[in-house]
Amino acid sequence: MCVAAPSRTWQSVSESGPAPAPVQVSGGKRTPRGGPVPARPRNARQAPRVRAT
Questions:
Q1: Residue 50: what pLDDT?
Q2: Alpha-carbon distances of 29 from 6, 24, 25, 33, 40, rounded to whole Å
Q3: Residues whose CB is less than 8 angstroms from the CB of residue 12 and which lie 6 or more positions away in sequence, other chains included
Q4: CA 2 to CA 52: how far, in whole Å?
Q5: What is the pLDDT of residues 8-22, one digit of tens each?
Q6: What global pTM score does this model have?
Q7: Do 30 and 51 contact (CB within 8 A), yes or no?
Q8: What local confidence, expressed as pLDDT, does residue 23 receive?
Q9: What is the DSSP letter of 30?
């Protein structure tokens, strides 16, 4: 899904144009940037608490 989605989104982005903004913001930032970046800080805070207990 993640690999197939970006490849298809890139094609639609270059062809459609207006679709790239919403696609990159929701899928691009959430998966590559939004997923790993926010997930680490959030998990880092919850991880210590869970591990501590």
A1: 56
A2: 11, 6, 5, 5, 14
A3: 19, 20, 23
A4: 33
A5: 455 544 454 444 444
A6: 0.11
A7: no
A8: 44
A9: I
Write down the residue that tokens 């919403």 correspond to: 22
Show the tokens assigned to 15.
């062809």
Of 28, 30, 35, 34, the closest CA to residue 9 belongs to 28
Report the length, in residues, of the chain: 53
pLDDT at 44: 53
Which tokens go with 26? 């929701």
Residue that the structure tokens 């298809």 belong to: 8
Cα separation, 42 vs 32, whole angstroms: 16
Q: How far is CA 31 from CA 18, 28, 37, in A?
A: 20, 6, 9
